[in-house]
Amino acid sequence: MNRTLALLFLSVLFSAHAYSQTDVHLQVDRERGGRIPIVLNRIEYELPESETSAECISEVLENDLKLTGIFKPVHFIEGTDTLKAGLTAVAIFEGKLTSSSEGYLLDVKLLDYSSRGVIFRKNYRFQAGGCRGVSHNLSDEITYFLVGETGIATTSILFVRERQGSKSVYIVDYDGHGLRKLTDDKLAVSPVWLDKNRFCYTSYKRDNPDCYIVDLKKGLKRLLSYRKGLNIPGGYYSGKDEILMTISVMGNSELFILDSSGKMKRRLTRNRAIDCSATWAPNGREIVFVSDRTSVPQIYIMDRYGGNLRRLTMSGGYNTSPVWSPQGDLISYVSREDGLYRLKLASPDGLWVDTVYRDYLSYEDPSWAPDGSHLAVAVEYSGESWIVVVNIDSGLKRRLVRGKSPAWSPVR
Description:
Blueprint: E1 18-20, E2 36-40, E3 44-45, H1 51-67, E4 71-74, E5 91-100, E6 103-112, E7 118-126, H2 131-147, E8 156-163, E9 166-173, E10 180-181, E11 188-193, E12 198-203, E13 210-215, E14 220-225, E15 231-237, E16 242-249, E17 252-258, E18 264-267, E19 275-280, E20 286-291, E21 298-303, E22 310-311, E23 319-324, E24 331-337, E25 340-346, E26 353-355, E27 363-368, E28 374-381, E29 384-391, E30 397-402, E31 404-408
Parallel strand pairs: 2-4, 2-5, 3-5
Antiparallel strand pairs: 1-7, 5-6, 6-7, 8-9, 8-31, 9-10, 11-12, 12-13, 13-14, 15-16, 16-17, 17-18, 19-20, 20-21, 21-22, 23-24, 24-25, 25-26, 27-28, 28-29, 29-30
């Protein structure tokens, strides 16, 4: 997919963290696959006991910037403030770490490479063990200030992992760190984020596919929908607190809207077909979903009231798992071709469709990152399902953890 990053004339704005800045105007262009060089200086420190945290910040930040797919971290020749011949950069990052009995103070600056003018200067206070979180925040700040895009370094991914005959919901940081188990179910499926603290999922814990809502911040879990038969969550629209839900009615799967208290707000479909896997357009005006009303699963779009139905996919005999991108310009889904599930991207009007990979792997259950440039998908390698992160701009992908049904979190 051809893509050009935004042309940015940046006039640095005040933020709650900033205590000093100079107006610096940058212009950053990036064609597909091209990375923006940025000089990363190692974090300086005064006391030997700060060395471990300083090194942690430097390493995590460099990895975060590489994982954006946007930046190429480079370093000055040792003992100088110049790059190797032929190299240039857009900006220079530098920072200094000090410690006290109250914790650490990190003072950082981002400078324009040519003029050495200050793009932003900030400080962060944190306790021991907080270096990864500080580094992730820094990466997102740099991404925003240099290219005006949403960073994803503070995000996490929910997924389902089967172990010893049980399927439970797990969470992992976007870079593969911080793996932990969140639920203890014999069969959990379809985790969906509601916001940065809450998610819902379906569990067969009570021998019925009931939907639960979990608040990670408060440490609470409760039943959300437990009608007899299917209760499977789809997308969430925060603007009106609306959860799309597949619910069985007389044995048939239909689409409904519930709020996060479990109250039913509206029934969307009413027919003899199976309707399921619904997600919202980012503006909350339309819904993309799967229906077999033509006898095979195809992808359709309707408005938020269940009207103005139109069919999105016109080819292929099995299309499923549609998800609207955060920017609203793309819908990802999977299509079965030659015994494999192909990862597809389509414009919402259906006039443009592209296949991301034409290899010998199956891609299932795509979930968008908040930046609209990355997808998490489930891919099977040698009989084991892995969560794989795909960069749709460069085509690069990386295995994250073993599991299925990924759900990418909002920015924290």
